[in-house]
Amino acid sequence: MRAAVVSKLEGPEAIEVVEIPEPAGYPGGVVIDVHAAGVAFPDVLMTRGLYQMKPQLPYVVGCEIAGVVREAPEGAHVRSGDRVIALTLLGNAMAEVAVSPVDYVFKLPDNVSLEAGAGVLFNDLTVHFCLRKRGRLAEGETVLVHGAAGGIGTSTLRMAVALGASRVIAVVSTEEKAEVARANGATDVVLTEGWLAAVKELTGGRGVDIVLDPVGGDRFTDSLRSLAPGGRLLVVGFTAGEIPTVKVNRLLLNNVEVVGAAWGEWAMKNPGYLQEQWAEVEPLLAKGEITAPIPVVYPLERASEAVAALDNRTAKGKVVVAVR
Questions:
Q1: What's the total number of domains in the chain?
Q2: CB 2: neighbour CB atoms within 10 A?
């Protein structure tokens, strides 16, 4: 089968599309004919050996797929022929065939295409975890998201209102990315240059209830300043590269919180949590209350470019690699 493979830890440019054997099935595994694979920022870090989990070389790129079940264990909640999305854990996604643990496989609603489905799990379940579990989003609150034209950003824009927010403010770096944010449901859009003052003006000086930050870097302190009393700053990642620090007196003075939100770690330590999430998210997708992602699709031959788009921050929305 064809697969996008990393053999040396030299960044996205080292990804090659080669022929490798199909993976062997295993007890409790679902064999899936892959149609599309999602790309996420951990994929960038893995190509340099910088992610906390390090697959053994050589490895197949990616951790989320959409496809059709070829074979499933007896008594499983999916069966041969079902359209599904799945997590493949440590790599093993960008290939024509993948095997996923049955608990990490989910039926895809009929109204969501396979290419769009490949962009659902990693980002949407991360955002669901951030807003529901860690951010304690309450009805009518205001959410702000940095990097709003990226995968996590557009997922936040698509999902926040369905989960209870009354307003979702997108922070983006260019007018082109502002259009992406609006297309994904932002109620307000501000540019990174002068974003804090713009947000204070939009909220009448009050600030926002939740900041979801996958970027980190030098805007972190201003994110704290943007919070309303009782607000929560959710730390999701550091695509800017720099890991910021916080002076805790800022938390005390304004009764605000900085909250870590590592969805993958939580899911691994809480068996059944992914299925619990999907039980809430799937009906919202099926009913159209949460729209499906609008993916930016690359062919498998350009898998290296697809991952590099997250590395150089040119991605506009969720990046997906079409395998078939």
A1: 2
A2: 16
Structural domain contains residue 276: no
Looking at the structure, do residues 108 and 12 belong to the same domain, yes or no? yes
pTM value?
Answer: 0.90
Give 316: exposed, middle or buried? Use CB within 10 Å, 0-12, 13-18, 19+. buried
Alpha helices in the chain (DSSP H): 41-46, 114-117, 121-128, 151-159, 175-183, 195-202, 220-225, 249-254, 263-269, 273-286, 303-311
Rounded Cα gap, residues 234 and 294, in angstroms: 24
Which residues, 6+ apart, have CB-to-CB distance to 214 below 8 Å? Answer: 41, 146, 147, 150, 152, 153, 236, 237, 239
Backbone angles phi, psi at 285, to 5 degrees: -65, -45
Please indicate, yes or no, whether residues 140 and 201 belong to a single structural domain of this protein: yes
pLDDT tens-digit series, residues 156-206: 999 999 999 999 999 999 999 999 999 999 999 999 999 999 999 999 999
| DSSP H/E element including 71 | strand 64-71
Q: Do 88 and 100 belong together in one domain?
A: yes
The CA–CA distances, whole Å, from 240 to 98, 236, 310 equal 32, 12, 11
Which pLDDT score, from 0 to 100, does residue 83 have?
98
Average pLDDT over residues 235-252: 74
Statement to judge: residues 188 and 227 lie in one domain = yes
**pLDDT score of 160:** 97
Flag the least confident range among 82-91, 107-116, 136-145, 241-250: 241-250
β-sheet with 188-191: strand ranges across: 188-191, 167-172, 142-145, 208-213, 227-235, 257-260
The DSSP secondary-structure symbol of 173 reads S
- Per-residue pLDDT band for 282 (boundaries 50, 70, 90) equals very high
Identity of the amino acid at 240: A
Q: Which domain holds residue 159?
A: 123-264
